[in-house]
Structures are given as structure tokens and as C-alpha cells.
Structure to design on (243 residues):
């Protein structure tokens, strides 16, 4: 038993040593050298600081509220979105935002596993398929991978769910949504996505890394419903506040 533990410890240290040799880096959040390759370059301490958001938020789109003054945000009150519910693990800030940026913009694809694992607690009972929010061909070529698809893979593997990654396409580039007024956000995304498969009778869980205004999730949901989906819900790692 002791020998086995020694071997496991030795193996783990060896992997970390090799990793640090190959990827000499320090944790971008605290400056220490990570001793665990799973989250690296983020150190285990900073990874553990990634927290689930449990404060007040809109009961449909999860837009965080500064105080618990109601159950719906102004946007959902004005017009209900096409998805039945959007859920985000945490807020797009601190260590979670850093991890997502390293994954997405610095090509550290192995972070898709620990990041995707944050979403495994979500109730997926009755879900027929996971649909990752697609990238345009241009963005996909530039990045080399679709971060939402990698997250969906982590979920699908553990929860034994089907992924439909070629049923929704992004036709045009859309500029970043943050800071734009609501009517411009909708105009930006309207017609940017198209469902190219039949989703008849399906309950779909749309997967994305960050939900900013909800306009992308809303337009993808509209397309999926047009293609026959029974209902669409949305799951993202982080929510950027619209405030
Ligand atoms: Zn750290
Ligand atoms: Zn809302």
C-alpha cells in the first residue's frame, strides 16, 4: 500500500517536473510555480479560488443582480428569450476569467477538462443532445479549435450525452457584444447563426464558454427551435454582468 502511494506520488512529481521543464511558467494570478500539471499554469491554490456564483440573479438568463430586488432582469422582463433557462457556473472575473482566457486565447486546450468539469453538477436530466455554440470558419481557422466544443466533449464523456457539433453554423463574424445597447446586440447576432440539421423533438443544451449579453445564446436558441427543437437551455462557464 505504502509502496503504491510512493509510486503514485513519485509519478505525479515526475509528471510535474517534466511538465515544468517543457512549459516553464508561473501562475499568472499569484506568481508561484505550479506543481500540478492539470490546471497549469494556474496553481492549485488559485484554481481552488474559482467559485460558483450563488448571489441574486435573473431566474431566466442568470444575469447577476447587485441586490435581490426581483426575479427577472429588465431584458427578460421586456422580452422573454427563446431559451427556457441559462445557467452559468460563475462570474467572468478573477481566476475563472484568467482560466478561460488562457484556454481560449492562449491555446491551452488541456484546461477544457478542469473547466468542463465545473459544469458537471448541472442537472442534465432529459437532455437529448449538447450543442456547442459554433465559431465562424474564419475564427475556427484562426484559433484552431472551438472552445465550446471542447467543453462539450468533457461533459459528454462523463454524462454519456450526445454532441451535435455540425447542426448549427455561424455564418458571419459578430463584433464583441460587451458595452453595446440591447437593440444593437440583437441586430448584431440576428441571422449570424443557422441550424442546418433537424432537431425535431429534441431537448437541447447549448454550451458556451462565456455569456455576455445573451444575444448569441438567444439567436442560437431561436435557430434550434426553428429547426424543430422542443426546448433549449443554455450552460456556460461564466457570466459577464451587463451592468
Ligand atoms: Zn496561483
Ligand atoms: Zn434575464
Amino acid at each position: 500500500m505504502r509502496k503504491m502511494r510512493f509510486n503514485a506520488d513519485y509519478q505525479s512529481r515526475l509528471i510535474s517536473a517534466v511538465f515544468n521543464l517543457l512549459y516553464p511558467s508561473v501562475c499568472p494570478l499569484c506568481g508561484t510555480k505550479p506543481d500540478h500539471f492539470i490546471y497549469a499554469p494556474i496553481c492549485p491554490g488559485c484554481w481552488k479560488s474559482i467559485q460558483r456564483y450563488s448571489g441574486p440573479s435573473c431566474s431566466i438568463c442568470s444575469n447577476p443582480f447587485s441586490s435581490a430586488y426581483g426575479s427577472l432582469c429588465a431584458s427578460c422582463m421586456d422580452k422573454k428569450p427563446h431559451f427556457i433557462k441559462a445557467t452559468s457556473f460563475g462570474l467572468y472575473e478573477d481566476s475563472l476569467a484568467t482560466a478561460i482566457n488562457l484556454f481560449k486565447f492562449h491555446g491551452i486546450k488541456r484546461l477544457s477538462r478542469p473547466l468542463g468539469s465545473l459544469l458537471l453538477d448541472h442537472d442534465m436530466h432529459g437532455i437529448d443532445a449538447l450543442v456547442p455554440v459554433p465559431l465562424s470558419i474564419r475564427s475556427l481557422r484562426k484559433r484552431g479549435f472551438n472552445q465550446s466544443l471542447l467543453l462539450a466533449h468533457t461533459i459528454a464523456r462523463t454524462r454519456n450525452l450526445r454532441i451535435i457539433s455540425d447542426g448549427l453554423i455561424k455564418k458571419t463574424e459578430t463584433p464583441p457584444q460587451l458595452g453595446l445597447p440591447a437593440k444593437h446586440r440583437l441586430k448584431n447576432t440576428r441571422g449570424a447563426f443557422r441550424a442546418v440539421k433537424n432537431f425535431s423533438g429534441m431537448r437541447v443544451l447549448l454550451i458556451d464558454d462565456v455569456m455576455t449579453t445573451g444575444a448569441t445564446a438567444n439567436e442560437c436558441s431561436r435557430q434550434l427551435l426553428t429547426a424543430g427543437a422542443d426546448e433549449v437551455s443554455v450552460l456556460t462557464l461564466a457570466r459577464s454582468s451587463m451592468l
User: Anything to note?
Assistant: The pocket of zinc ion (ligand 1) is lined by residues 27, 29-30, 32, 43, 45-46 (CB under 6 Å). The two ends are 55 Å apart (CA to CA). The first strand starts at residue 85 and ends at 91.
